[in-house]
């Protein structure tokens, strides 16, 4: 497609400038050009005579996936990420230097893999620390880490509620990975927990008859109680979504 190089250049400029409103129409036009050039879903046969075309397809689909992240459009992200991976795989099979450069994303690949391992181990404190602002290898990860932390926090809260009648607010702050007691109170109100005398009182749960425990042991015991397959099952999916970025 004769105008594909021009579209490719314009799209890179628009994305670099963070002009996502401009990038969207350019992306649509560029994807149509890729489709007409038979590289939107590339094969070795279609790019054997023009590897540069596939490299441009990779860039366009990568920008599409990243733009979707910035716009919180998970559906478009999934589509573009899948196409981006396909382009990378074909480039890699061709053995081009460009592909080798693309696959040398050690930190980007290592990050979701490490999160997944920590989730399997039940090392939720490590997961929380690694997802804090400035700790991710790129800002595009932040959308997914927010979802991961929210889900993890919700599951911890549910398990703590089932395990104990009450917890001190200060311990709940550490357990739920919240920064301030004000955030704990807001979180508790959202879940209709009873707050009085410096403690959070959970609604009775018919499945559990847990007795209150000393304050110093609350956090440790609660974290042991939540180390279950249920939390891992619910959160591991988000770790896998993180991996799609790369």
From TrEMBL:
Keywords: Proteasome. Transmembrane segments: none annotated. Residues 82-204 form the CSN8/PSMD8/EIF3K domain. GO terms for cellular component: cytosol; nucleus; proteasome regulatory particle, lid subcomplex. The keyword Mitochondrion does not apply. GO terms for biological process: proteasome-mediated ubiquitin-dependent protein catabolic process. The keyword Glycosyltransferase does not apply. Pfam families: CSN8_PSD8_EIF3K. This is Regulatory particle non-ATPase. The lineage of its organism: Eukaryota, Fungi, Dikarya, Ascomycota, Pezizomycotina.
